[in-house]
């Protein structure tokens, strides 16, 4: 929350600003040093995921350290840890189930194709040549102290290699690798099938050609560790901090809503003190956070029809919030962009004035340097210089001041509505009863009514004040007043008109979300298990062009 600033005179700039979106904001006192931005990203959710993934890798490591399990799984037990690093159990339960299935499918496909290849390769070796090679090996082994051990070592060293067998393995397994690559291109979400299948293929390219006879279990040395790792990841995801796409979508929407109130406080300060400059970098960072968080909601909403969750709301209920929430995000971004563009224009005007002063100082000398695109630069400088005159600045100040009182009450109503939405989203998947549910629903309905009321008051007030101010721009004949050598004073009205438009659209978008929220509060009372509603959506999701953990683009307005 923003602390009330202290001013010395009415309309002056405040002595202390604690809102971070302003250039002259007072930095909060910190007792210690902060981590760099690329490291300072851990939160409760991230720590839970880190613990879940670390637990899975730790369990797989224990299987390597315990000798009986190491012997049972095989010498490639370490491969299970690599699989967990490739596909950690950090996502939702359904995604981890898909990961487990894809790992097992990759193992099964490669193993099955390898068995077929081994059958074909052994059949290409002439029986007479094989028997002759065996006889020679037996004669050499008979002269050693341990014939059986000697024969095994010789076979593994390539004594029984045959050209026909090696070529068969190479061609058929190479064809399989090509098919897996084509499968990955056609269905990007099956990337793990291709990766795991390629890992198992190594056995049939390196070890299988050395064997003189058919051995259908040669691939189990790799298949078993991969399968064990997939099972450990699935169990850890189910038993340790399980999440669903519904709960993740609710958390994502709450994260976006949490970014809005502080900026709305900055809007109130900006209305009261138009001379304050907002930080363009902070506004750009806010837009980036909102849009990046919203992009993560895309794959979650696509998973809703095939999601299994426990809570008050089902996937169909949450899907109805997709479009209203998109409009809310779009209107909030538009409001932040309005302030950002105003700050850019203000900085451009200051730069233009500085260029003009510098140009006047060098007008009598030949030291002026001509830059690339100098003509366009001069025209832009001329526009900003001609539009920077007292009457225009007075109009801007009057327009903004006409929005202060109704705008402040409207923004407070918007903040209360955002808090009500966030509170409801938090209760939607809480696995405990809410004794104050009816009171909360009535309170949220009252907040919605207040939002509509303040929005109507804002529109009524500004629709009277702005036309009164605009009369100063037009003469008795209804034509724009103008002065020689300056830009039309009508441009002084535009900041106020644009701000009024954006401030009126934001509560409309918030009201749409809050209306649906209040409806769901009345409809969904009990906690229940929500099963997948449309399994056909699974095929659509697999055929989508995004990866296994897709990041969708925001929808166009």
From TrEMBL:
Question: Any idea which UniProt keywords this protein has?
Answer: Membrane, Transmembrane, Transmembrane helix
Record keyword Transmembrane helix present: yes
Renumbered to this chain, the Polar residues biased-composition regions fall at 1-10
Q: Does the keyword Membrane apply?
A: yes
The portions of this protein that span the membrane are 55-86, 92-116, 159-180, 186-205, 217-241
What ranges does the record give for the region Disordered, renumbered to this chain? 1-20
According to the entry, every stretch annotated as the Putative ER transporter 6TM N-terminal domain falls at 35-438
Q: What name is this protein filed under?
A: Putative ER transporter 6TM N-terminal domain-containing protein
């Amino acid at each position: 929350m923003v602390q009330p600033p202290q001013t010395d005179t009415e309309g002056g700039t405040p002595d202390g600003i604690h809102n971070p979106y302003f250039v002259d904001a007072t930095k909060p006192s910190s007792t210690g040093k902060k981590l760099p931005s690329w490291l300072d990203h851990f939160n409760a959710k991230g720590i839970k995921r880190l613990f879940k993934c670390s637990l899975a890798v730790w369990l797989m490591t224990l299987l390597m350290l315990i000798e009986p399990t190491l012997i049972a799984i095989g010498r490639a037990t370490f491969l299970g840890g690599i699989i967990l690093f490739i596909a950690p159990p950090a996502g939702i339960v359904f995604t981890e189930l898909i990961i487990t299935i894809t790992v097992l499918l990759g193992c099964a496909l490669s193993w099955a194709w390898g068995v077929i290849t081994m059958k074909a390769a052994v059949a290409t070796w002439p029986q007479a040549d094989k028997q002759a090679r065996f006889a020679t090996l037996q004669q050499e082994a008979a002269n050693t102290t341990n014939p059986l051990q000697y024969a095994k070592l010789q076979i593994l060293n390539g004594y029984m290699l045959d050209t026909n067998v090696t070529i068969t393995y190479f061609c058929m397994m190479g064809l399989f690798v090509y098919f897996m690559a084509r499968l990955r291109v056609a269905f990007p979400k099956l990337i793990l099938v291709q990766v795991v299948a390629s890992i198992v293929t190594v056995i049939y390219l390196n070890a299988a050609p050395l064997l003189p006879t058919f051995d259908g279990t040669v691939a189990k040395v790799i298949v078993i560790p991969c399968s064990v790792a997939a099972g450990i990841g699935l169990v850890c995801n189910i038993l340790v901090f399980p999440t669903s796409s519904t709960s993740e979508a609710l958390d994502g929407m709450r994260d976006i809503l949490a970014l809005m109130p502080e900026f709305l406080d900055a809007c109130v300060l900006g209305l009261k003190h138009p001379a304050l400059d907002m930080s363009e970098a902070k506004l750009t960072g806010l837009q980036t956070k909102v849009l990046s968080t919203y992009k993560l909601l895309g794959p979650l909403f696509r998973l809703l029809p095939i999601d299994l969750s426990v809570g008050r709301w089902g996937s169909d209920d949450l899907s109805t919030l997709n479009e209203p929430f998109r409009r809310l995000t779009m209107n909030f971004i538009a409001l932040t962009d309005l302030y950002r563009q105003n700050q850019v224009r203000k900085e451009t005007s200051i730069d233009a004035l500085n260029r003009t002063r510098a140009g006047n100082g060098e007008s009598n000398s030949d030291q002026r340097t001509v830059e690339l695109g100098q003509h366009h630069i001069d025209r832009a400088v001329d526009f900003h210089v001609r539009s920077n005159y007292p009457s225009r600045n007075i109009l801007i100040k009057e327009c903004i001041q006409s929005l202060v009182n109704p705008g402040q009450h409207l923004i407070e109503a918007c903040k209360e509505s955002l808090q009500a939405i966030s509170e409801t989203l938090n209760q939607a998947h809480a696995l405990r009863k809410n004794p104050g549910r009816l009171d909360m629903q009535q309170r949220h309905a009252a907040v919605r009514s207040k939002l509509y009321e303040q929005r109507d008051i804002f529109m009524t007030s500004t629709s009277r004040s702005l036309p009164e101010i605009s009369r100063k721009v037009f003469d008795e004949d209804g034509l724009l007043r103008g002065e020689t050598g300056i830009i039309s004073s009508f441009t002084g009205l535009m900041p106020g008109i644009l701000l009024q438009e954006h401030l009126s659209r934001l509560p409309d978008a918030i009201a749409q979300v809050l209306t649906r929220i209040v409806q769901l509060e009345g409809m969904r009372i009990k906690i229940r298990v929500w099963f997948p509603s449309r399994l056909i959506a699974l095929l659509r999701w697999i055929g989508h062009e995004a990866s296994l953990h897709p990041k969708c683009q925001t929808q166009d307005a």
